[in-house]
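Morning!

As promised:
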Amino acid sequence: MKQHPLCTDTEHATNVLDLAIPAQVKQDWAELQTRRHFLGRAGKVLGWAAAASLLGNRALRGDSYPAAGAPAGDSLKFPNFAPRAKRAIYLFMSGGPSQVDLWDYKPNLAAQYNKDMPDSVRGTQQLTGMTTGQARFPVAPSHWAFKRYGESGTWVSDLMPNMGRIVDDLTIIKSTNTEAINHEPAIMLMNTGNMNAGKPCLGSWLAYGLGSMNDNLPTFMVLQTKLNTAENNQPVSSRLWSSGFLSSEYAGVGLRSSGDLVLYLTDPNGVDREVRRKMLDAVNEINRQTYQELGDPETNSRIAQYEMAYRMQSSVPELADLSKEPQSTWDLYGADAKEPGTFAYNCLMARRLAERGVRFTQIYKRGWDMHDNVTKIMPIICGETDRGCYALITDLKQRGMLDDTLVIWAGEFGRTVYSQGGLTPDNYGRDHHPRCYTTWMAGGGVRPGITYGETDDYSYNVVKDPVTVRDFNATVLHCLGIDHNKLTYNFQGLDQKLTGPVPASVVSGLLA
Amino acid sequence: MGTMAVRAKQMLPTMKSTRILWAASLGLSLLLLSLPWLIRLDGHPHADWQQFLGRFHPLAVHLPIGLLVLVPLLEVAGAFRPALREAAGFVLALAFASCLFALSLGFLLAYGSGASGTGVTRHLWGGIVLTIVVLICLFARPQWSAQGAGYVYPALLACMLIALVWTADQGGSITHGSTYLTQYMPVGMKRVLALGATPSASFYAKHIHPILDSNCASCHGEGQAKGGLRMDTYESLMKGGKDGLVIVAGSSAKSVLFERITLPPDHKQFMPAEGKPPLQPEEIAWIKAWIDQGASPTLAKLAGVTIREELPEVTIEPVADYSSLMPEIQKMDQGQGAKLKAVSAKPSDGLVLFTVDSAGNFDDAELAQFQKFAPYIVEAELGRTAVTDASFDTLKQFTHLRALHLEETKITGAGLPKLASLSHLSYLNLSGTQVTAAYAASLNSIKSLRHVYLYNTPAQPAPAAKQAPQAAPVATAAAQPKEKSAQ
């Protein structure tokens, strides 16, 4: 076998069997490599094949039926139990939305305006470099009033009048907490279960475990929301929808927020379907030869992705064609939804993807990182997201899809109750806050109309039912029928999993 | 004289050592019988070392159980292999010793931890009687072969077994609660055994009692009443314990019960104690509302408390073994088109029919090809396919179908009555079809249906063009799914 082109050691190829690596890894390697093993296995296969033809088809089947071409996670192992949700839509609020101004109502804070936050509340909490030098930490009560909504009587900020109308469908978690205080580690932790880049994200794990329901669209899709110049936009990157060490077939496929949803999907003038097919067949053949030469499984992923792109040439235009949406859709989502890349458009697209059997859709909405000027920016962002989230939940519900779709709304952390920078009666800023933040879920598997967990009077520490990121992800997997301890992939000598090596538990209080 | 004298000689102690043994046994039996009076179980906890040792009782108790079950087996098997019968004597002696040991630990546990109550008393007496019966067995055993009195020993063994089972059951009820064995008993069996009273409709009976029963009654109940408090009936709950009332009707703030369940879980006085899981926030809220509103045993509804009415469980029928069809199912999986996927790793959970790959081409004829899989399909996703009302002739054979998606199809509803035979169907999505109100009404005959979606159909048109402005929300009641309660 030829040396892989990515191998940097061109002088002397190392013998894997001489390396100081676990015996099991050597064995795995040997199984892929050695001629003797190949011959041995071929001999066995021939023997069994002969026996099978003598005994008839049924004799050797036994009870396990591994399907060729099935995802590596073996579709028969997952779901581990009958799932409540078949698919999920994850509304990721990048930047860290302020729980103090949206969900975590603290009426007593008004009296604390501009008073110093007691040291006993902050305790040993380490602050970011942005506020650690502040002389004082004055309490900044929310600028907005809260009202009670629904049968559950849940308090919701006036920033989100539409969300108020559907609180009885939500499972609100006030006690989510994370270990990271800065964007990149926190957002990685939330999405991949690890602060360091390189691990597969939630969507990739689901694609790997559950496989596709529709071969004409990717199993995992990512929608970016257009930037709003008034916002403080922290970047998001494709690391967040990376498949890490899993095959790149399971990585999220992003739809563009303007122009063609997928670049170069339309055939150029003069190239018809048949020509395209022939070209792909030829490229696939060359790729297959490469695979036989180098044995790199990523080559197979590439073949699969080319085929997917070919099928997407017809499935994506159908997906993007909104002309058949009835007027009631626009009444619900608002006129914004007609413009690609808006949050409303992405919510509508998420519903359309769910209808078309996409397992996991993640919408990224940036701009929640409000270190200053909260009162000015918050209404802009909430104006976009409040209507979109409301419309999505309502639409899924009226179409009977909320029963088996899990909707998740979360950011990477919350924000401090004390003001960053100057506190005036009209404006304030808020720094990153990992100790508590509010998230919500709705739909398949979770209990509607409840609020889970409690924070202290300053919305600073969790006082009841904490939900760690690990527990959060374990619960999401549970709703999709997966035992988080069983969805593993052996890499670097460890059975890797989304929830990591620290014990995590499904939060049963959230389940329906 | 003759035989009688011989027997009398056998029965009565002759040698001096035997006589001492008899006297000691008699003394021991009397001591055991008077133990509950000599050391009274006063319901107060005593020395920690007693509890420490006593907590080995649940462990130690299994040794005599095993040995005592073994004895009759050895005796019976001894009829065929005499060596086994010889072993029975030794096992019986060992069983007696272990009985005594377990009894001592058990008594230490009860005395040390301050357990009291009828269950504890019964269990204690059971243990004492059992130990004495075993002792008598030990003496009667040499008579096994004696003529005329051969039945005594087997009869004693039978008594011993009955005492064993009864005592063990009492002990189990103390630790696991009296409903432990019957909780998951099949309903039919319960009915035959006439267990479980008819549930009353009051809030207490429906919601409060079950919480107390499953979380509190194992320590405060019929089995044992720690602190003199029993919570298994309304009367005993309101009577309170040794230290007075636990519930003050009308004031949860003054009620000790409420105080104890809302302490921080690591607090010494927190209930449920001993590391048992705390009550759910919702349960605590119910208890609070119930106490505040008078702790009534009859009130059916409480102000401010809305309880999600639990719909009767739809029985999830396991599907039959479809492994012989697996090759076909796999072949479909590899092609482009409709496919069957397992609901979960458990084959009896059935299959889901996915058509989304080939929605436009999937018509009635295609569906008909799935007839052979009919009894294994629990969910059919036929949304946006080309199926028509004729498909109901195939669908009615999907006997285990639980969810049927027909949204955005050409269905008019004329075939809907054919679904009446599907006794497990609980979800039906007809959104975006031409189903009329009249046909939708025909669904009322399907008792298992819980969720019917008729959004954007003649039966339930989409809401007229009304703007839903950000600040002033407009109700969309018309768009709500039709929730049909299957009462």
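Residues 54-75 of chain A have pLDDT under 50 and may be disordered.

Hope this helps with the figure draft.
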